[in-house]
What does this fold into?
Amino acid sequence: MSKQNIAQQVKSAFPWLIMILMSSVTFVGILSELMPSGVLPLMMNDLNISEVQTGNLVGYYAIASAIFAIPLISMTMQFNRKYLLMILLGGFAVSNIISGLVYDYTIIIVLRIIGGICAGVMWPMIAAYGMRLVDEDNHGKAIAVIMAGTTLGISIGMPIMTAIGNDYGWRTEFIGLGGFIILIASVSFFALPSIPGEKLTKGSSPFALLKIPAVLLVLLLTLLGVIAHYGVYVYITSLVDEIQLAGGVESALLFFGIGSLISVLLAIKYTDKHLRLLTVLMFVLLIISMVIFLMFGGTKGMGHFAFFLWGLSFGPLVTLLQAAVSRQVETAKDVATSVQSSVFNLSIMIASSVAGLLLGIYSPMSLVYFAIALSIPGMVIAFFSKKTLG
It folds into this structure.
């Protein structure tokens, strides 16, 4: 079958089943990254390591994702998209299963770095892969459905995996996830269409993309939005303690998760037609939720409402920013989304570091002020970016 026939066959109607299958890939991708954070004490005791060393199991994974995304996406541009995804899923599975079987901390770190490298390639490439399976009018919808897996992973997957780890041991949790990834890879092998790679040219290189003003504008919005959100999210337990939220962090995450799920559904429906409006609203809702924490956080019910609004703002973050950067280029969308993905990961690291410093000097409310200070310019820039965001 020719390339044109493949494209026509898939693009004739929105391929919901294929997009949901791709969403399951991002679901296991976010679980692979965050899983150790839910079972830190268990891993500390079993491997006889410190809390910092256990935290590094997430940190090194994220650093590997940020460092290797751009060069490896450029190197693998010509690979068939389906077979490249099979290799990446194999890397995730091996990383998790062997981590659950070995007892040497150094080997587990190496395996986590392998997982991080696979993630660095997977996040940008799967969004671009999905966009090539639909008409241009549905690009935002495709990204929204695919990236919904990350929201589901954080709001539903993590509590389930953490419960499995606490009840049956962290090793069972890791091996179980590895087995689930093999299952997804098997279904993907038969269900996903084969799409050839693209040739990397001077015009589609990462350096060429960084010369496009509209791409730089989206990267600036990424920096502001991600640091604003994650600066508070990383230390969510400190905020919960500060406002003495009824029900504790579990209650906060429940309302946050409900908000996130609702906004993901809205993003699926409206991203293609209302990207600029949704981006502005993302910053507006973040500001409103943070102001509620400042002024009414201790009032009964208001803290929970603020977490719900914050979830509404947080849910479509990845979708909106990847849709925005992919709009700025005609070809090599993988490279564009890899540059955006690297800035995203870098922003999380900056957020964690700066927020940690603020928390060491001031109260947790300083993080709320920090988020507002970044969101206001983000909101203004998004509002005036008519040409870039449409």
Summary: The CA atoms of residues 41 and 51 lie 8 Å apart. The chain has two domains: 3-191, 202-389.
